[in-house]
Amino acid sequence: IKQYSKNPSREDIKKYLITRWDSKDPIKIVAIKQLQEYWDSIEEVYFNHLADRMQLESFYNVKELVGYLSTRYGSGYNYNDNWFAVSVHKGTLGNTLTAMHEIMHIFFYKRWWQFCKEQGLEDKNIWDVKEAVTVLLNLWFKYQVIDIDLGYQEHTNLRKNIKKWFLETRDFKATLLKACDYIKTHKEESPAWVK
């Protein structure tokens, strides 16, 4: 903001990031190396457990997921192009949990989005359910990460219920059905910026 004002252009942002990260390749190299080494040690367990617990019938022709190390503080994913991003600012274990979270979103879209639509949910409310079910990562992968997937504050009650329902049923689809029914009467669950 000091350098480019309150509304920097895309080019200004690119220049700023290049300047900020210029000559910092050793930091990026170490961050990528550590994260990749740890991910390699848990990847098979992660995908086997995710497929089993999310009741994925397959990996939906996904041959490869690409992970990006971003200079942003946030993260993200694209389920059509099968990529996700983690932040250079988080460290190995924080980014491992972020990768698990984003990958879970990718497969939620591929397997469960349409199912939630069939239950009568609007896209915005399916988004809420998709975000809230990541609470299950805390149960499923407690031995692989030390951080906790906290989610959005607006989903606190839904996340508590999802955890309870899953522990009662040990069935993702049954849990998802309960979450869909719940969200129909709790539409205020969306963060304000979700449309």
Largest sheet: 3 strands, mixed
Class of secondary structure makeup: mainly alpha
Please, what is the average pLDDT? 93
Number of strands: 3
What would you call the shape? globular
- Strands in their spatial order, largest beta sheet: 1-3-2
DSSP strand (E) fraction?
A: 5-15%
Radius of gyration: 18 Å
Order of helices and strands: HHEEEHHHHHH
Low-confidence stretches: none
**Helical region count?**
8
* Helix content percent band: 55-70%
Please give the alpha-carbon distance between the first and last residues.
28 Å
Features:
195 residues, mainly alpha, 3-stranded mixed sheet
What features would you describe in this structure?
- The protein has 195 residues and is mainly alpha-helical.
- It is 55% helix and 7% strand.
- It has a three-stranded mixed sheet with strand order 1-3-2, covered by helices on one side.
- Helix 5 packs across helix 8 (172-184) and helix 7 (156-169) packs antiparallel against helix 8.
- The longest helix is centred in the N-terminal third of the chain and has 29 residues, at 25-53.
- The two termini are 28 Å apart.
- The mean pLDDT is 93.
